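ugh ok fine here u go
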Amino acid sequence: MYRAVLLDIDGTLIDSNDAHAEAWVIALAEHGRRVDLSRVRPLIGKGGDKLLRELAGIDADSAPGKAISDRRRDLFQRLFLPHLKPTRGARALLERLHGDGITVVVATSATAPEVADLLRAAAVDDLIHAASSSDDADESKPDPDIVHAALTRAHCEPSEAVMIGDTPYDIEAAGRAAVPTITLRCGGWWSDEALAGAAAIYDDPADLLQHYERSPIKAGGGVASA
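structure:
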């Protein structure tokens, strides 16, 4: 059994991907960049710096980039975060991991303050051993820096950990760090074909928990659930 589980948050533990996309659309529009939601939504899961560059050609470290990013963060926290719900079975899955003595470490492109807010909203903040965020990485997902940082915080080698996420960017980031990924469909948007690089695919944390004994967490391999 793996010693550590590296966890994405958005779309994995909390149903927040649509909200992030809407906050980006509003923030970009307020700064004169009108972008359709259908262009933003498939990019949620990448780091905000990469999303800004791809959608608007803006460097996140520039004055406009910082203004848009700050506004997006403010919109998300005030308008959307108070209404978000945990994904089905999120807390129960983490309790099972704790019961098995598995170290649980967050690996996300969110900032450290956002991580704390999201974990509280997902009602799992007391079940996380450590967290790596964009503050710990030079490059955001799908680059592997955040996964490497999470491995360091978990005090384990890539072969001793598995990632749980919901996007192709989680799969790519973990794969580039030689860590396998369990992917959840609850992040929305992506087909199973787009998630084909995962070791296994489940509907949500509750589905993974239902198939826990045969999942890669316990068995080192797995297949997509029905």
